[in-house]
Amino acid sequence: MTLEHFMNDAISPWMREEGPDSDIVLSSRIRLARNIANIPYPILAAEEKLADVQRFFQKEYANKSFDQYQAFEFIPIHDLSSIEKRVLVEKHLISPHLTKHTKESAALISENEQVSIMVNEEDHLRIQLYLPGLQLRQTLDKAFEVDDWLEEKVDYAFDEIRGYLTTCPTNVGTGMRASVMMHLPALVMTRQINRMMPAINQLGLVVRGIYGEGSEALGNIFQISNQITLGKSEVDIVEDLESVVNQLIEHERNARNMIKEESSTALEDRIYRSYGVLAYSRIIESKEASNCISNVRLGIDLGIIKNTSRNILNELLVLIQPGFLQHYAKKTLTPKERDVLRASLIRERLQLEK
């Protein structure tokens, strides 16, 4: 397995599977922050210490398998081009933060792209694991298994009172971020999302865009995650998040039904116009493409558009991103060139469905 394995397909293998409530919840993710005892945190450690950490994980885990996660590929970030880094971020395999500290940073990524272990990010280790749909508890259990596998050879920085010790104080305790990626077009259309966000924040959760902190909610996709890591167990955090997510699912379903009943013609017009834009445009910007993809996905979920797979929309959301477009073209593109190629690839992909 090589880097190209992760670069060439816009959609990760695990994303092709259906999960519970996957018409609204795209994915569940657990991320665990861990540091190695008696080694300074990455922001303070000397380069030779971080190089030792990188070499250790390359030696012990490169090309190794665990459970169903086969052949972890070791990828030094320093060896990647700017476009390759961007593609891995766009596929959620690494964080934007990891690409900024490339000297001794790396990633271990499983063959099915379900598990990614970032080395020398903000912490020595950032372990993340994904499952399709709403499967937070199952994702947590599997993340614990990977965590235990690593801990067989790694002595974590841990305090009996404070829990796992991390670079950022907001991660101390469990060191865990649980999150779900949700498609909420009806709540956006009815503007209910505007009053829900402050309420969600008051519950100790945070709402972000598709690529996390500081990113925009492109295509009506929102990331909901916990803020509190200290004073609660991992199970309690997951249960609290799942409770809020279930309420959001119910509100989104109700909003979809209301729009379909009260404004069916306008809704169908919006969906088919969006499909037409995707199917026939010769130039399209990423924001417009994301919004059209969101509308078409809603049409598929409501049974208005038939014979088109929901997975194609998941694939297109990555395919239209700047990094992936430039990787496909095998060169750096101007914004206008990206808009032209984006339209071409979308047309081509939709034609394959017919």
UniProtKB/TrEMBL annotation:
CDD domains: bacterial_phosphagen_kinase. It comes from the Bacteria. GO terms for cellular component: extracellular space. A motif (RDXXRA motif of the pArg binding pocket involved in allosteric regulation) lies at residues 338-343. Coiled coil: none annotated. GO terms for biological process: phosphocreatine biosynthetic process. Appears to be allosterically activated by the binding of pArg-containing polypeptides to the pArg-binding pocket localized in the C-terminal domain of McsB. It catalyses: L-arginyl-[protein] + ATP = N(omega)-phospho-L-arginyl-[protein] + ADP + H(+). Residues 24-255 form the Phosphagen kinase C-terminal domain. Pfam families: ATP-gua_Ptrans. GO terms for molecular function: ATP binding; creatine kinase activity; protein arginine kinase activity. It is an enzyme of class 2 (transferase). Its EC number is 2.7.14.1. Keywords: Allosteric enzyme, ATP-binding, Kinase, Nucleotide-binding, Transferase. ATP binds at residues 27-31, 92, 126, 177-181, 208-213. Belongs to the ATP:guanido phosphotransferase family. Catalyzes the specific phosphorylation of arginine residues in a large number of proteins. Is part of the bacterial stress response system. Protein arginine phosphorylation has a physiologically important role and is involved in the regulation of many critical cellular processes, such as protein homeostasis, motility, competence, and stringent and stress responses, by regulating gene expression and protein activity. PANTHER family: ARGININE KINASE 1-RELATED (PTHR11547:SF38), ARGININE OR CREATINE KINASE (PTHR11547). This is Protein-arginine kinase. It comes from Oceanobacillus halophilus.
